[in-house]
Each structure stands twice: as C-alpha cells, then as structure tokens.
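note to self: the first set is below, dont mix up w the second
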Amino acid sequence: MAIRGALLTGLVGLAACTQVLGLDDYVDAVDQLCRCDVDVPQFDGACRDKLGERLDAVSPERRAAWLEFFVDNCTDSCDAAFACYQQEATCTIDECTEDRECCDYDEGVRCDLARGRCQ
C-alpha cells in the first residue's frame, strides 16, 4: 500500500502522464492497455495516440484516478483491459466511431454512427 501511495504521488507530477512506475521498471500504461487489442478499441491503429490525448486532456485528479485504477487492476494481464478503458479519462462521452468507445457501454450506451456521437 505504501508503494502504491508513493507511486501515485509521483505520477501526478509527471509531465508524461502515461508513464507508470512499476516495481521493476517503467511501464507505459497506455501502450500496455492498447496491446489488449481484443478488448480495447484500436482507433485504426492509433490507440496509443488517442488514449494519450484523452489522458492529457483531463484534470490531474482524473488522470491520477485512472492511473490508480490501472495499477490496481490492469498491470498483470488483459483480463480487465476493457474495465480500465471504460474509466472516464479514456472512454468517450462525445465523439465516437464504434460502440465500445463510449463510456457506459456495459449499461447500453452506444455510438450513433450517423452522428458520430455516444448516446
């Protein structure tokens, strides 16, 4: 628990917000999440760029909450990749190109492809 607290404290101040300090080395959290290509939208091969942009656009508190969830749930395997993607810092409530891109997908929110918006 102390390691995670120190990890998250350091993460909030990082200029490159997607870097996560692991126990043995640095792991690029977005890259790791995008490697779970079965569960995470790939954005025509631009998953890393798209999710990096989304994380850069949110507040430091939201980013820290996403990174905490990632560290707690997604560093070991792709089993929880979609749950990590569905956090509000990386999923979308607005523009979309596919259903699974929308926040609250599991609750029935889908992409209106004609409008390119989640609803």
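second set (the one i keep forgetting abt)
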Amino acid sequence: MEYILIITIIMTVVIYYTLRYIIEIQKDNEELKFLTLIEKFNSIVNVIDEELFGNNSNIKFIKKNKFYLYNNVYPFIVVFYYDRGCLVITWKHYEKKLILEKWFPNVRNIDKSRERTIADKYLNEILELIIKYEYNTTIVNHYVYKTDNVIKKLQNI
C-alpha cells in the first residue's frame, strides 16, 4: 500500500513538471511566432552590438530562439538563447579561450529599462573578465564601460 502511494506521488511530481515545461515551451513559441528574438530583445542586442562590434556585427540565426552576433574582424561571438522565459547570453573569445555565460530569468515581459540594465551589467562583466585575464588577478574594481572602451580592451588582449 505504501509503495502505491509513493509511486503515485512520484508520478504526480513528474507529470506536473513535464506539463509545466511543455506550457513554458508553448509560451515561447507563441511569443516568437510573430516576433524575432532580435526584435524581442532589441535594446540588449543594440547595446551589445554597439559596444562590442561598433554597430558592425553580422547575425546568424541557429533556431528561432537562438542566434549569434559576430564580425570577422574580431575573434569573439555573442550567442543569444531564449528558453522558457529565460535569456542566456554567452560571450566567447576564441583566441584566449574566454567564455562568459549569464542567465537572465523572467524576461518574458521585459521592459526597455531592464533590457538596458541587463546589457550594461553584461558588458561590465565582460570587461571584468578581460581585466582578470590581462592582469591575472581575482581582485577587480568595478569598471563602468563607455563607448569604444570595450572594443579597445578586446583589441588589446
């Protein structure tokens, strides 16, 4: 009798999380049915494009919920991935083997000011990673990026 109760509880939990996952995927599909991922996160994409690529990036779509920005001049890419209401942004520098991946949850109904905050925070974290790499240190003062500073730092590593 106890086994039946335990199996029932386990099955209920599994069914609950499976249904929740399916519902979230359907919400993503509905969101991206008439809107591209670039349009959805336009402010984030524009700020990152401006600061990392000088507004000169190329876009490559992998799927409707994943794309990356790149420029053949620079040895890095920025990958955007949207899944179940979360945005994942990954910066990869190929020559130095540096990677910065950040998850931003609950961005399904994001406003422009939060998008800007996310972009600013992410760019600052890239700069911190670069400074840590350049100076081989774990102590980094917060560095507020300004236009062209990100590009200059990336060209110097």
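remember for set 2: The two ends are 65 Å apart (CA to CA).
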